[in-house]
Amino acid sequence: MAFRRFYRRTFLNLRGHHAGAYALADITVEPGFDPDERGRRVSARLSVADCGRVVTIDLDADTPAEARNALHKARLLRDVAGQVAEALERAIHEAELDGRAARRGRAGS
Length: 109
What we know:
2 domains
């Protein structure tokens, strides 16, 4: 029988925007495929949807090597998501400054 270790679904958009964007993470620990083996299997999925598109990343692990690789992928995704947020903050800030300068330029003409 599978044991759910983690489950989270969260909507990505603010209220008033399209409601179809979400992130869904589901991690379970299951018995191994071979009934003679005592090992377990980690079944993990991360899905990200942006209204009409869904991407699902499998992070399953049946062996120690697969577990190390799955954890490496999850950590790398965490780092990249953080870098995207920081770069987006800078880009939005720059765009806002450029927008104000352009409005001031038009007002002074």
